[in-house]
């Protein structure tokens, strides 16, 4: 008779990854910014960590510190697999346009034990900006982490989307009030928004049957009213998590991508599309996992 083992054995595949800053600059000089403080969890779980200090790329990008951590293990008390990913950037400065004392990205994943039909559960609680400034304006946005806690599984979110009860969480929801001509004008001015008008039109005319997707693009900053932070006379335009800066480019805040078995959170994406061209991503975390067949 085989001896019973006290350790938990399974065929669960863990997934968690994180990075501090990464990007690609195309103009006026082509530069590739390798992922800084990047770490990935091994399929069998465990822990990973990385840190980069005092990074500077000309006057385009600098930060005092970026550090990430991932982990995964089986919680025997609750019979679930747990994993997490976190990314923190301190004293971030992007082209003297975007600055933050700290950017914190966190994602946690709870996966049921093998044989369960329950969905994976995800949470981004703890993700936040500290002293975020854009063009010198303080942007004190409190992320709607509670909304994603409420819709913590794929099935919950999909059900809410099909019932049109979670449209305000979709990344393009802030553009819903613009007509076709206004959307095209915005797209023409900011080529980083290429294809925007077509995507918004598809969303506006969608039905419960056509709303089913393999992934959903969302934001935890969709409620942001930029004019409350920069004033009604400012040339900056805000459409929820999308901030348009004339002669510079686009800033995207707290992007959340929802897949069936994973979620990703990118806290800040800067897309330059005027005097310079390129993109910089900061505060990226991703988590998921599941059993392997057979």
What's a quick, concise take on this entry?
This protein is mainly β.
Number of strands: 17
Give the N-to-C terminal Cα separation: 25 Å
Whole-angstrom Rg: 20 Å
Strand-pairing-aware structural class: mainly beta
Report the helical percentage. 10-25%
Q: Which segments are poorly predicted (pLDDT under 50) over 5 or more consecutive residues?
A: none
Could you state the oligomeric state of the chains shown?
single chain
- Major beta sheet, specifics? 9 strands, antiparallel
* Beta strand %: over 45%
Q: What is the average per-residue confidence, as pLDDT, rounded to a whole number?
A: 90
Number of helices: 5
**Anisotropy-based shape:** globular
Note the run of SSEs as H and E. Answer: EEEEEEEEEEEHHHHEHEEEEE
Topology:
Elements: E1 12-27, E2 31-36, E3 39-40, E4 46-57, E5 61-75, E6 80-94, E7 98-112, E8 121-123, E9 128-130, E10 133-134, E11 137-138, H1 145-150, H2 154-162, H3 180-189, H4 196-204, E12 215-219, H5 227-230, E13 237-239, E14 242-245, E15 249-259, E16 262-273, E17 277-291
Antiparallel strand pairs: 1-2, 1-3, 1-17, 4-5, 5-6, 6-7, 7-8, 7-9, 7-10, 10-11, 12-15, 13-14, 14-15, 15-16, 16-17
